[in-house]
Design brief:
It contains 9 helices and 4 strands. It is α+β, with helices and mostly antiparallel strands and 204 residues long. The protein has 2 domains: 79 residues, Glutaredoxin; 109 residues, Up-down Bundle (Glutathione S-transferase Yfyf (Class Pi), Chain A, domain 2), CATH 1.20.1050.10. Strands 2-1-3-4 form a 4-stranded mixed β-sheet, with helices on one face. Helix 3 packs antiparallel against helix 7 and helix 4 packs parallel to helix 7. It is globular, with a radius of gyration of 17 Å. The site of glutathione has 11 residues, from loops. Glutathione binds next to loops.
């Protein structure tokens, strides 16, 4: 059986969402990264980066949350979460890399340096860099969603999961001005209404 390490309040949530969407049986190991559980010698053997999430599929081990979501979608979600054409597969990769490099890094810095860290650990310049930088990718996302319900092939896919979780993590989208982007808000409401997403907080 698949084994997923990482609790809901972490980037593991996109992997949990993918598994729940597809109804794939898995064991959920609620590794608490905040309590240092991703830094134990035992955990570092499965992810030398010391981060959650990690997926174990038999002897196969995978880290990086978007890669895990895509692996699960490709293996168990052909024709549903994983697209049928090579072009749409390319778009799934495009959106994951874009979300990670152009948006998530700034969203996480804002979360840490404006909200989560104790005042003495905060670096206000990183929170400012985030609020200065995010309007550009948010505009790209908003424009890409014009007249569309979903990011790839006009059906819900792992691309929506990977990108939406950047904004849904800790409801951060409510803090970074996303309300100015109506297509993003409509899309977030659409994907967050899915039963699999609604179920996730109960998993912890
Ligand atoms: N790019 C990685 C980032 C993973 C990451 O930084 N995870 C955080 C939780 S969201 C973590 O494990 N932090 C605890 C630590 O680094 O000690 C991914 O998407 O999987």
């Amino acid at each position: 059986m698949l084994k997923l390490y990482g609790q809901f309040m972490s980037r593991a949530q996109r992997c949990l969402w993918t598994l729940e969407e597809l109804g794939v049986p898995y064991e959920h190991v609620k590794t608490n990264q905040g309590a240092g559980e991703s830094r134990t010698p035992e955990f570092l053997k499965i992810n030398p980066n010391g981060h959650v999430p990690v997926l174990q599929d038999g002897d196969f081990v995978l880290w990086e949350s978007m890669a895990i979501a895509q692996y699960v979608a490709k293996k168990y979600g052909q024709g549903s979460l994983w697209p049928a054409s090579v072009e749409d597969e390319g778009r799934v990769f495009q959106w994951a890399l874009w979300a990670s490099l152009e948006m998530e890094i700034y969203v996480v810095n804002y979360l840490r340096h404006a909200m989560l860290y104790p005042p003495e650990k905060r670096r206000p310049e990183l929170a400012k860099e985030a609020t200065d930088t995010l309007p550009a990718p948010l505009r790209v996302l908003n424009d890409s969603l014009a007249g569309k319900d979903y990011l790839v092939g006009n059906r819900f896919s792992v691309a929506d999961i990977n990108v939406a979780t950047v904004l849904l993590l800790a409801d951060i989208y409510k803090q970074i001005g996303v309300d100015q982007y109506p297509n993003i808000i409509a899309w977030l409401n659409r994907v967050a209404a899915r039963p699999a997403w609604q179920k996730l907080p109960t998993l912890k």
